[in-house]
Write a structure and sequence with these properties.
Helices cover 69% and strands 4% of the residues. With 474 residues, it is mainly α. It has a single domain (16-469), classed as Amino acid/polyamine transporter I. A hairpin with a 2-residue loop joins strand 1 (137-145) and strand 2. The radius of gyration is 22 Å and the shape is globular.
Length: 474
């Protein structure tokens, strides 16, 4: 498809505000409610063998997300532009800070989330069509490295994941209208279905009230805190994406009102669904039966209702992941578009398609790199790596609300963070604890994220010099 199918100067064509409050809330909730609530509880149960602590972890995750959302609401309402965190970091700390966020977004965080969601989608496609799933390995290689070797395997699930990335990228390329239609439809379906499972679970489910004692196994306090920290990384993955609606602030109608409302309504709704559905899981199964189980929703509902619900849950997960994947593909390119408009990324990425009014090249580049990550990793590897980077930038971006109140006191703030300065401070301090715990428990993934971020410094200097050269010539 021709990205420049017009005689108009693409540099003069901008994005259009097409997303209302309902659209924005559905984008926010649709991105967040993806695979996390269906896949991560078994990982958590390996760390914290306590039903009470699992529920506490989800409640804490919701409260932290709300604290972050209230802070992002102020930033987004004050600077309702495409790019979200990129814009806030640039304004607060300078262009390098914004660039490093966008750099890690492109090479690890956003594209890593897309890759992980694509692999989760393929995992469930394999339930219905095993030949297209992640268990169907079609290639294995032993690659010599120094004195040893690196094993690599390619599954049809990875190919399936790439296929869905390409299809959804195409849909979002040809218009925000089509992208938001898909998002609204799939989000309404999955919210309604999850609510239905919760209601039926309480009404007719065959379960046992969970033991809510916080430390039934008698773990010592230090080990318990470390275990909760690991579990909160999985919770953070399930809540990840609530800030992504800020990336498309340049396409939200009346963003000074609708963006804060979408963040607040969406976060409250998600937290309620998450806590209740996990109570239903724990009502259905003891924690010991959850440990290490990836497809926890199927096992729990099978025990609660009947084994026949497995296929229904698989369809629900497919719908949920598909919607979350679509939302992530929709919002991410706006960050790279904003970077390119500042001369800090490939020039073509700054172009808006004259007919479809979408950042076409940005969507294309994102699809290519996310597909490569899908070929290289597994679900658990990718989400741990991506989440360490994400949490680090959440902390820095949230701190920018303090910096900007001092640096830009004249900035219009139609919404101010409720509970300032305590709410953002609590979010920052708690997130720092999770980050430190991840560094201690998952050092390889954490250090890889740090290394990738540092690599962005010479890249920034290159693009800055290149941009200044072009400016001098013009």
């Amino acid at each position: 498809m021709d990205l420049n199918n017009s005689n108009k100067d693409s540099s003069q064509i901008g994005l259009v505000r097409q997303l209302g409050l309902f659209d924005s809330t559905m984008v926010m909730m649709g991105i967040v409610i993806g695979s996390g609530i269906f896949l991560t509880t078994g990982i958590m149960a390996k760390s914290i063998p306590s039903a009470g602590l699992i529920l506490v972890a989800w409640l804490v995750g919701g409260l932290l997300t709300l604290a972050g959302a209230l802070t992002y609401a102020e930033l987004g309402a004050a600077m309702p532009e495409a790019g979200g965190q990129y814009v806030y970091l640039k304004e607060a700390y300078g262009p390098m800070a914004g660039f490093l966020f966008g750099w890690t977004m492109f090479f690890a965080y956003q594209t890593g989330v897309i890759a992980a969601l694509a692999l989760a989608f393929a995992e469930y496609v394999g339930h219905f069509i095993p030949s297209l799933g992640t268990k169907n390995v079609i290639l294995t290689l032993d690659i010599p490295i120094l004195q040893g070797s690196l094993s690599y395997s390619l599954s049809m699930g990875q190919i399936t994941g790439i296929g869905v990335i390409v299809v959804l990228s195409l849909f979002n390329f040809i218009g925000v209208g089509l992208g938001k239609l898909i998002q609204n439809l799939f989000t309404v379906i999955k919210i309604g279905t999850i609510a239905g499972i919760i209601i039926l679970g309480f009404a007719i489910g065959k379960g046992v009230s969970p033991n809510l004692v916080l430390n039934p196994t008698g773990m010592d306090f230090g080990a318990l805190i470390m275990a909760i920290g690991v579990a909160l990384v999985a919770v953070a993955w399930a809540f990840d994406g609530r800030n992504n609606i800020n990336f498309v602030a340049g396409e939200i109608k009346n963003p000074r009102r609708n963006l804060p409302l979408a963040l607040i309504f969406g976060t409250l709704g998600i937290t309620l669904l998450y806590v209740l559905i996990h109570y239903i899981y724990l009502y259905a199964l003891p924690v010991s039966d959850m440990e290490g189980v990836v497809r926890i929703a199927e096992k729990a509902t099978g025990a609660l209702f009947s084994a026949a619900t497995g296929s229904f849950i698989s369809i629900l997960v497919l719908v949920s992941v598909f919607g979350s994947l679509n939302g992530s593909i929709l919002v991410g390119p706006r960050v790279f578009y904003a970077m390119a408009r500042d001369g800090l990324f490939f020039r073509k990425v700054a172009q808006v398609h004259p007919r479809f009014r979408t950042p076409g090249y940005s969507i294309l580049y994102q699809a290519v790199w996310a597909s490569l990550l899908t070929l290289l990793g597994t679900f658990e590897q990718i989400f741990t790596f991506a989440m360490f980077i994400a949490i680090a930038f959440w902390i820095v971006a949230t701190a920018s609300v303090f910096t900007l109140r001092k640096k830009r006191p004249d900035l219009p703030r139609p919404y101010k963070t409720w509970g300032y300065p305590f709410v953002p401070a609590i979010f920052i301090l708690t997130s720092c604890g999770i980050l430190l715990n991840t560094l201690l428990e998952k050092p390889v993934e954490a250090l890889a994220g740090i290394f990738l971020t540092v690599l962005g410094i010479p890249a920034y200097l290159y693009w800055k010099r290149r941009f200044q050269t072009v400016e001098n010539k013009t």
